[in-house]
Structure formats: structure tokens, C-alpha cells
Amino acid sequence: MRVIFKGAFYFYKKIISLLPASTDPCVQIVDSNSASQHKHWYNYWQVRFPPSWLHPLLMLMWLLIGISLRLTNLTAKSPWTDEFSTLVFSLGNDFLSVPLDRAIAPDILLQPLQPNPAASIGDVIHNLATQDSHPPLYFVLAHLWMKLFPSEGGLVSLFAARSLPTIFGAASIPCVYLLGKVAFRSRLVGQLAAATIAVSPYAVFLAQEARHYTLAILWVIASLTCLVIATRHIQNRTPLPIWVALSWVAINALGIATHYFFTFTLYTEAVVLISLAWLQLQTSTKFSLLFSSLWRRIYAVAVGTLVAGLIWIPILLENKNRGILTEWIRGSRVGLDWLSPIFQALGTLIAMISLLPVESSQLLVVIPSGIVMLTFFIWAVPILLRGIKIQLQHPENRIMIQVFIGIAVSAIALFLIFTYFLGIDLTRGARYNFVYYPAIVVLLGASLAVCWHPPQELMEREQGKNGIENIGKWGINGKKAVMLIWLMGFFSAVTVICNLGYQKYYRPDLFVQLIQQISPVPVLIATTHKSYIQTGEMMGVARELKLANSPQNSLFLLAHQYQDPNTSTIALENTLKTLPRPFDLWSVNFHAPVAEAVKTCVADTKSLPSVDGYEYELYHCQ
Residue 459: pLDDT above 60? Predict the structure, then answer.
């Protein structure tokens, strides 16, 4: 590991040292100790490649690194319930074909995962509108994409399902480069933002799930780019080009059609625009400025976006399952539970930059990982904050730093409002933070740009006050700090692809191994059923049994639970009476009173290992 770390550090240092001082017209290099070495490598580069190739080749490098990380172990982790919903609905199938309240074979449970050549885009949209709580754009694209891949053992290809978000995730690398470049008029900021998102553990986590979040991130980046352009025009008091306004409306419409939480991004943009209008009024006594052609076009963008959003209201209101599907983020709090959302929000922010194996089940791994992460942030946070502070002092960059900070702060504040005042804890789902994630990445790129090429006039001012050596602890500053922060992101991404960080909520692979070790007789796996969430939980188990070619005779029972939990108990009771003995009953996530027939079986009292996502009890029915 030490050799890998040194090799990666050396490679990164030599490649990035090729960045010329002219990359950013508003900054200059002040690191005199590395000037001669930089000149040597830059001249070496110029002999072999034209200068115009520098940034495309750097972008190609970030793209290759990002794609490699996102494709590594892409199908190694078992899909979980949300991914099963993507698979089923994208195929044009539904969960209604799975029988309830009776024992069924694994193949019957897995039928919705079988490609259906007769299914159309209309089926995808209809099933989503009636059974799910998400808009259809991503699912339609996935429907068309998965048709290009053959099935795996009669089931839809998991690689096909996960490779589409991987492509969208990789596309975010050049897109965030453009956002950083447009916002700060600096290719250096764009390159560092692209380098950051290429290895961000949060970005890798989202790109390896068969879900729509990476596509939504692309729309967020595009919408923020339009906001940046609008901000420049507000600052210069020039009309917003019509093509920008029309593109902005189209992007926002596509974002809402991908994920309804994209409206949170629109809320943060509205907050920023209102703040910019207020600031403009402070510098001018003419209220008529808010009715200039510039602002009229911004109002037109708002109206167009509102119309695009209102289209989905009837579909949401007609969906009867939306309350059941969001139960997991609702609930009451007692005592210290009121502090959990704050720590969850903070943890998500931290994991966007660094995430070592702190989720491991072994303390010998957790403790050193936690110490390294804590030490890293004690060192890195002051450097990053100082970079933001210096950018705020730069007249041309101040407004953009304020815009991106406004996006991030507004989004987090909205999450906390939903959590504490509406009882919907959005901080529990780290994936929902996609609504402001690109803003964090660009802020990191802007801060790291100061470390890489400190503005000389501002650094001299800082040097006169506190001394430049105080910016970073332990003498690690400048380019070394940038490289170390990037390498921490790289190893954090490796942590994610090895399932040591952002671990899957469900481990059906471990649960199937446990069943095969303990039950030599046929088994009945029973669970209570409320929605397709529970169906997905059992699909994970059935899929692992199929992949393992298990000779074991296994049956599943989805005991539907209406308002009375006893309905599930009755379904289990009736099923147990029809099965020939001996068999083992695995009661999994079964939230209902114990059936009388279960009492005729012998409860297993041995200490068995816990399995993520599957809370179980074992009964031997002889």
C-alpha cells in the first residue's frame, strides 16, 4: 500500500505540475522552491505536445480515472430494493404479478425481472404513474438502454442496469469542469473541480447504483451553469440571451422529469436570484431595474419552469402508494434523536470528500480509519476555508463564491426544515444531497485553485498579517496539499467500490449463505408485505439463490399487511398448514403477531450472525 501511495503521489505530481501559470490569468505562482522543477517539466511537455493539448489531455486523464473507478466491481454488490424497482419498472413490468399470501417458488418471485419484448415505453410510464413515486425520464432511457444487452440466466443484466448511471456519472466530470470554468473564468478551477468529482466517494457511490441520481446531477450542473450566466448578466446589467433562457427552461423541465427533488435545486436558485435582486436594489434607487429586459427574461424562465413542474402534480396526487413508499423517512424522535439529522447532514458533507472504512464491522479497521479521517479534516478544513476566504477577497470571484455558498446553504436549510418542521427526515437519504452536490464540488475546485496558484497580491497581504506558513498545519501547503486531498478522495473511492463505505443497506448474499449453512431441509422464507419494497427485499434473496444454483427447495411468502397486522399472521398460519414437514421457517422482517402454527415449531436458540437488511428468526418445523 505504501508503494502504491508513493507511486500515485509521484504520478499525480508530475502530471499536474504541467499546468502552466497562464492557466489562470488572475493568479500567479509564488512557490519559488518548485519554480525550476516546474519549468523543466513544462519545457519537456512543450517539446512533445502543443500547449493547446494540455487541458484536453488532463480532462481525458480525469475521465479515465473516473470511469475506471466507477466500473470497478460494478456488479459485485447485490442490488437492493430501490434498484429492483428501477429494474422492474424500466423493463415495463410491475410488481403486481407477484402472488401474495401464498407460498411461491423463487422463479415466480423473479418473473418481473425477466425482459419483456412486448413491453413499451407507454408501459414504463403507466406503471410508474400508478405504482411508484418517481417521474419517468430516467426509466424510459433505461428501458431503451437495457434492450441493448442480453439477459443473464433469463433475468435482466445487472451490468446493463448499472452501466447507464455509470456513464452519466462519468459525464459529470467534463460537465463540472465547464461549470467551474464558466463560473470563475478559470480553467484551473474547472480542472480541479473535475479532478475532485472524478474520485469523490459520493459521486462513485451514486454512479454504481441502478438509479437516476447521476442523470439528475447532470441537470443540476446544467441548471447551475445557466444560473452562473444569468448572474454575470445581472452583475453587468445586460440582457440575458434568449437561447440561455430557453435552454434553462428546458433543462429545468428535464430535471423535474428525472427526479422531483430537482425542485429543491430550483428553490436554491430562486433564493440566490432574490438575493441578487435585493443587492441590486441596494446599489440603485431605480426600482424599475427589476422590470428591465434582463429580469423579464428571468421571470419568463421562472414561469416556464413552474409550468413544467405543475404538469406532474396530478400524477403525484393520483398515486396512492407515495405515502407507503416514504414511510422510512417519517417518524417521531425522542431525546438525542433530535440531533441525528444534524450529524447525518454533516456526515454526508464529509463523505463527499473523504470516506475511509469507518463502516467496517471490525474495530481494528474502524478506529484507525476514524483517526486518519479526523486528522485529515483537522488539517484540510482550515486550508479549504482559507481558500474560500481568499477567493471572496477577489472582486471578480466574490459573487460566484457567494452564489455557490448560497446554493449549498439554502439546500441544507431546506432539508432541515423538512426534517424538523414537516417530520420528513431527508437527511437519512445521503443520495438526496445530489440537489446541491455540484455546488460543493465547484467550491472545492475554487478553494484548491488558491492552494495551487495563490494570487500574489492577496497572499502578500495575508503574509503580512499572519504569515503564509500558518495556512496549513505540519508544513503541508500549496500543491502538496492539493495532491494529498485528491489522493484522500482516490482512496475513499476505492473504499466505496470495495463496499467498505456507503455500504449496501441489504446483504442478501450473506443471508443466502447463512440459510445454506444452517438449513439442510426445505425452507419457507416469510415476510410481511406492504409495498414493492418488501418484494424487492425478497427478490434479493431469490436472485442470490438462483445465482448460487442452490439445490435447496426454497419457497417465499409475502404476507400482505392491511391496516390490521393480523392479516399477515393469518396468511402465515394458512400457509404453514399446507406445507409438508420437515422444513425450516425463516421469519424475515416479519412485523406481525406470531401465528399459532409457528408455536408448533421449535425456535432456534443458537446465536446467529446479524445480516444487514434482514432481521430474522429461525424455526424448525418437524
Answer: no
